[in-house]
Backbone:
């Protein structure tokens, strides 16, 4: 089956040091992939290349042209302007902007579609609330609803579980799994390795280049995690679940509190 | 009642009042997008840029509306593109583009010293200077801008809320920004005679931020901003007539008073809510 999107030997730089190098990636129809890596690894940049918000500095981008790929994007919550005067329902209806014709205000059918979708995601009662007045989990669902109302083939989410509580994060991943089972292709970035390992059937480890990609069992190993996070990582498998944790580093007293410099500024104790 | 009707005996006041209402409403409409895009300074800058364009149009002996309009449109487009394509923030881009444009106007004025007086009205606004032709231009601009805002309503809303995400959803953000630059330039050209270069920024921003204080809904914000802009335009023109002060200044002062009133209302509402939660 032809990939929906393919990146071949892609490099990217914002003008200084390369942010991404030699990226080779296929996104196939029906895939559910989680992009993991430390902060500054280039995860959001890679998403933006896939979404064509950025153009590769070198390399080849291929995206299906006919029929045009329907893509929806859920950005990081921290990039949203929470003071913007819109209600949850107005945000959801934005997803239909290009399908709504010339009439300025949303059609009754579109309003109904938004309501139904919000009900399905458990936020129907929040339709008229201002987006700032919602909890992190509710806000994330509003933006997920805006993506879903566009009926995308490829759903791209940037850190969908950041800023939400554990229950909401679990519920979001659960909903994404259902959507994927219904045939939607999903690509997301996350800091939550354990959640990704539990739900995503395909993991892509990124730190400026793709370190490894494959099913969680094959990829979530101590050598791969240590190389991705550039730290000593520990992988624990228990009852079919995978837990990843940085190995505790036992510091000596002298590593934490530097030795006083002879002739330097006296500390509080010295004053006493 | 006579006080209200008396000024309408004069043709210049009828022209001025109609222009002030339309210009006030128009600035209220476009101001909503300006405030929400975090470009409050653009009105100030672009009005100065247009002033430069007006002087160039005068020197080149081309129609004021064509010359200044084209100049303003290009300046707005340049600001938008500089902001989107570089790491320069909107305020810095506005500062560079519009000040340079204004400087061209000032340089030309100092080179050809024969027309300083005719630009007083452009700087401070003057209802006496509103001709029948100006009124027709303002009517046409108001109708065209309103129609385009309605046609692009959803795209403008999405682009203003989050341009990057809007692009992913298929909104032609570049086109929408270009249209918006054109609408903004047209609004400023239409408003110059009434408000003056120095007062346009306030007329664009104050009704919109006052409306923002009063509501959390985009549609209502737009309605309040347009209504407030039109109403303060009319009231300002009346005061300008009776107190013999420049029209731009009186309109802006009335708008500032409304803003203070909205602030007080908000403070009172908060105090009531706070007292209810402590009961």
Residues:
């Amino acid at each position: 089956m032809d990939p929906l999107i393919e990146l071949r030997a892609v490099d990217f730089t914002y003008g200084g040091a390369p942010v991404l190098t030699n990226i080779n990636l296929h996104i196939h129809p029906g895939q559910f992939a989680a992009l993991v890596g430390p902060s500054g690894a280039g995860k959001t940049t890679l998403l933006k290349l896939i979404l064509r918000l950025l153009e590769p500095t070198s390399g080849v981008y291929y995206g299906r042209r006919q029929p045009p790929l329907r893509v929806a994007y859920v950005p990081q919550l921290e990039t949203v302007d929470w003071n913007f005067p819109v209600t949850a329902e107005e945000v959801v209806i934005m997803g239909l902007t290009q399908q709504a014709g010339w009439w300025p205000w949303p059609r009754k059918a579109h309003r109904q579609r938004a309501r139904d979708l919000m009900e399905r995601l458990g936020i129907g009662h929040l339709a008229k609330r201002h987006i700032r007045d919602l909890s992190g989990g509710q806000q994330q669902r509003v933006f997920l609803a805006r993506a879903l109302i566009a009926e995308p083939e490829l759903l791209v989410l940037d850190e969908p579980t950041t800023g939400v509580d554990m229950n909401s994060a679990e519920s979001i991943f659960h909903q994404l799994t259902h959507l994927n089972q219904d045939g939607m292709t999903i690509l997301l970035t996350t800091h939550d390795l354990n959640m990704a390992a539990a739900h995503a059937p395909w993991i892509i480890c990124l730190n400026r280049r793709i370190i490894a990609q494959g099913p969680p069992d094959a990829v979530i190993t101590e050598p791969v995690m240590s190389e991705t996070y550039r730290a000593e990582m520990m992988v624990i498998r228990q009852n079919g679940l995978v837990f990843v944790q940085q190995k505790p580093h036992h510091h000596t007293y002298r590593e934490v509190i530097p030795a006083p410099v002879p002739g330097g500024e006296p500390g509080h104790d010295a004053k006493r | 009642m006579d006080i209200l009707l008396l000024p309408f005996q004069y043709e210049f006041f009828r022209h001025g009042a109609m222009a002030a209402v339309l210009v006030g409403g128009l600035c209220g409409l476009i101001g909503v997008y300006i405030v929400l895009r975090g470009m409050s300074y653009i009105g100030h800058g672009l009005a100065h840029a247009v002033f430069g364009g007006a002087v160039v149009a005068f020197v080149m002996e081309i129609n004021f509306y064509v010359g200044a309009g084209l100049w303003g449109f290009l300046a707005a487009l340049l600001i938008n593109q500089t902001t989107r394509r570089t790491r320069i923030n909107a305020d810095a881009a506005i500062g560079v583009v519009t000040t340079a444009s204004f400087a061209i106007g000032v340089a030309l004025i100092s080179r050809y010293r024969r027309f300083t007086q005719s630009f007083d009205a452009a700087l401070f606004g003057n209802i006496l200077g509103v001709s029948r032709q100006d009124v027709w231009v303002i009517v046409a601009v108001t109708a065209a801008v309103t129609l385009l805002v309605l046609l692009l309503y959803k795209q403008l809303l999405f682009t203003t809320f989050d341009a990057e995400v809007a692009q992913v959803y298929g909104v032609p953000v570049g086109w929408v920004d270009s249209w918006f630059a054109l609408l903004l330039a047209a609004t400023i050209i239409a408003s110059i005679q009434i408000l003056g270069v120095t007062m346009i920024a306030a007329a664009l921003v104050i009704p919109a931020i006052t409306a923002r204080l009063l509501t959390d809904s985009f549609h209502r914000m737009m309605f309040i901003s347009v209504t407030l802009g039109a109403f303060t335009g009319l009231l300002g023109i009346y005061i300008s007539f009776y107190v013999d002060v420049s029209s731009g200044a009186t309109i802006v002062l009335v708008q500032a008073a409304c803003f203070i009133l909205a602030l007080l209302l908000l403070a009172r509402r908060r105090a009531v809510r706070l007292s209810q939660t402590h009961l």
Remarks:
- Residues 166-181 of chain A form the longest helix (16 residues).
- Residues 45 and 54 of chain A are 8 Å apart (CA to CA).
- Chain A touches chain B at residues 51, 53, 71-73, 75, 79-81, 84-87, 90-91, 94-95, 97-98, 100, 102, 104-105, 130, 132, 150, 156 (CB under 8 Å).
- Chain A is about 30% helix and 25% strand.
